Amino acid sequence: MRARSLAPTRSWRSALAGAFAMVLLGVAGPAFAAPNAQAATPTINCDSAAHPSASWTTCQQLVGTASCVWNNRDGTWTLAVGYTNPTASILTASIPPAPGGANNSFTATSGFASSPGHPSTFQPGTYVTAFTVTWTPSSKKDPVTWDLMGNTYTWTETSVAACPKTPVPVAGSIAGIFGFLGLLMAGFGVANHRATSVFRAARARRRLSLPAPGPAPTS
After folding, report:
1. Which residue of 7, 112, 153, 181 shows the fewest CB atoms closer than 10 Å?
2. Residue 121 β-bridge partners
3. pLDDT tens profile 123-140
4. Which is nearest to 172 in space by CA: 217, 127, 113?
């Protein structure tokens, strides 16, 4: 009886483990394949691209964005900055004072946003908060300026929406994937714990329902 009652529980656990493994492969698989896919993605050095040229035209498709701004209450403001690269190429542009930095430079009052640690490599896709910039504006119209691939983007403390909290650059996609996997593993652990508790409770009830052993046979 115990072997028959244990089999459905083990079967249920095996099915759950199999489902978890499928989700794991489906989510993590692309992450492990990413290096190979990235290796095949063309890269354009926008600093060395001729003007005009097909490469420079591609570089100029890169768009700088700002999603929100946060008031630090100390005279400084922090801007959540991102970008959209609609091309199929990885675009690169040096940060000042490196040669060619004119294609990827930040400026603001008192130089607080000068070379704020922003990226010099831009992957294809949209990144809402790729990095943040903190500056001290002298007025509500004193901007942060991003000169990017021949285009100029400016933002002020009033030109974008207020952030609901202090903006933090979004972690890389690999970190996001492993965070998601961590949640999946935690959920699997809870489900397995519950299944074990149910099985143990059922086994205890069966033991209580078994008839008491009869008297030992006499010779």
Report:
1. 7
2. 92
3. 999 999 999 999 999 999
4. 127
| Two tokens, residue 181 | 């996997």
Per-residue pLDDT tens digits for 39-59: 589 999 999 999 999 999 999
For 149-188, write each residue's pLDDT tens digit. 999 999 999 999 999 999 999 854 333 444 445 555 655 5
Asked if residue 184 lies in contact with residue 25, where contact means CB atoms within 8 angstroms, the answer is no
Distance of CA 195 to the CA centre of its chain: 32
Farthest CA pair distance, the chain: 109
Coil, helix or strand for 172?
A: coil
Q: Distance between CA atoms of 20 and 207, rounded to whole angstroms?
A: 33
Distance CA 186, CA 37 (A): 30
Cα separation of 63 and 115, whole Å?
Answer: 18
How long a stretch of residues is the chain?
219
Q: How far apart are CA 79 and CA 15, in angstroms?
A: 47
CB contact set of 119 (below 8 Å; sequence gap of 6+): 130, 131
Tokens 């299944």, residue located: 195
CB atoms near residue 177 (< 10 Å): 17
**CA dist 92 to 68, 73, 149, Å?**
25, 35, 10
What span, in angstroms and rounded, lies between the C-alpha atoms of 172 and 114?
A: 24
- 175 phi, psi to nearest 5 deg: -65, -40
C-alpha–C-alpha distance, residues 135 and 142, integer Å: 10
| DSSP summary character for residue 61 | T
Give the Cα separation of 174 and 200 in Å (integer): 39
